Description:
By secondary structure, this protein is an alpha+beta fold.
Amino acid sequence: MPNRLAGEISPYLLQHADNPVDWYPWGPEAIERAKAEQKPIFLSIGYSACHWCHVMAHESFEDAEIARVLNDEFIAIKVDREERPEIDQLYMEAVQMMTGRGGWPLSAFLTPSLEPFYGGTYWPPRTRGGMPGFDEVIRAVADAWKNQRRQAVEQAGQLAGLLRSNDPFARAGGDASLDEELLRGAEKALARSFDRHYGGFGSAPKFPRPVDLRVLLRRWLRTGRDEPLAMVRLTLDKMASGGIYDHLGGGFHRYSTDARWLVPHFEKMLYDNALLATCYLEAWQATGEPEYARIVRETLDYVLRDMTDPAGAFYSTEDADSEGEEGKFYLWTLDQLPSLLGADRAGRFAYVYDVTDGGNFEGSNILHRPKTIGQCAARLGLGREALEAELAESRAALRAARSRRVRPGRDDKVLVGWNGLMIEALARAGAALGEPRYVEAAAAASRFLLSHLRDERGRLLHCWRQGRARHRAFLEDYAGLANALVALYEADFDARWIDEAIGLADAILARFAARESGAFYFADEDHPSLIARKMDMLDSSVPSGGGLATTALLQLGKLCGRDDYLASAESALRASIDLIQRAPGGAGQLLLALDTLLGPTPEIVLLGSDDRDATGQVLADLRRRFLPNKVVAFRPAGAAADVSPSLASVFRGKTPLPPGPTMFVCRNFACEAPIAGEEAVRAAIAQLAGSAE
């Protein structure tokens, strides 16, 4: 018989619906039973693309004897960390306090009042390799609850107290300075951990960290020094040529298990691909390197092809495993190539992508490019363009063959915050690269979220799957979507998006802002309470909700003339000074916001002319430039002046001058003399970009 998870929408929870464990979803039914029976809670947290979550599920949660002990002695609760990130955030911190480490699957034992007293991550079902068996762990915890309950409850109370007090944002930042020294300190910290041979930060396992790379791009723009840009370019080049990138289908895997980006953990996450597409796009704007634009297009095309719901929104993840083996979908052997490509082309493809008899991963090959295309062309005696054209055809043939394999599992739930990151990437890429289909996809996803992920009171909901939306939205949802809508407005200039973003920003300030400090909470003030209400200012695998909120408030404040938004953003940054100083590698999104606050942040207003081609050329020129801190408002010729009250202040008093188009460049709401005519406006844009560089 299926357990209580059978009625859930999360694919991860549904994967456990037939376990012999009597699982509950997180909610009042489980908690009330724990209190009524005075049983401890076993809380297991994971997500559908998590390899070791699958392992523990198969080894332990499908084991009849382990299930019997869990059912007799505990109330077992299963949580999808992507669906309930506030629960994961809280108990991950608790387990890290208890053990010094964390990860998924996360396993925690709680009192009926939800206070944690023991925890860990993965345990094998029986003692193995020096690790205690999960069967021993649950028996020992059950015995402690029966025979040493007072000590367990006291320990849980102490830990809960630490969770409540462990808040670096309890007080406002005082008189500390928000200045460029914070940005310099962050750059120095990133440089110290930078891998100067393979790029990236630290050693294995190595995560891409695109937000930190975007911080370095802004350091290059601000200072004109070569070193920050060199760090970015080395990292992006090595990742794009490594096995972490899917050379056939586009898109990036989660992280590299080695230092040189060769062997990935093969899961694919929506947020990684959104953040990396944005990073490669900015690198293309900064350098003009065509390879970066190619990576952007291939990554976004992967998402539109394989990760998009027919309704328009974007799915969450793809698993690492298929047919029970990690990475099987992506691997190749040398003898598979000739039948698909022909002997000669197979030989050249194998040379470029390092496909060998011995393989580089468990006897098979992860495609990667240890040499540049130029080096390969010279070695093979071909022109570069001819080799690139042939490789494109070969990749298409192999991708078609791969499509007939069993695909990895896909988590098809829609998360608002992650969708916001992808909408922003699509909107910015569509505008900069001149790809309307990306902008159209971003608009379709935005329409879906705004229409289908609201409750009866109009408040945002967190996730959706197969027609069902659930759970109150978190800060990351409001803030991620607000940023996305600003980007979408700047891509298609539909004022609806700004009006919607203003509504989200107002909700952020009303429901998530900590009035005593200026920082932001993870969950809103009416969210069903946990034992501690935590802040969300530190980046994790995704940018912090607080950093995203600060960024959105700055953009909307500049674009819409909202001094209250600008003041709130500054307060949030002031509250985060200690975090930025102590852990700049976890404050990347706040650093992006700080760079915007420090400026220059030009407010650019464009008024179109009857010559649509000239107006289009001006917009295209502006969008290609790396001017990351600008905000842009546009009104085409003949458009009504009162389309949106949110944008009234930015257009007030501005009229087109012949021959048009007309550009106004403003700073802190004070505007320079208007510039009219395509040639003059494009010269002014070049000057803006030149002064930024």
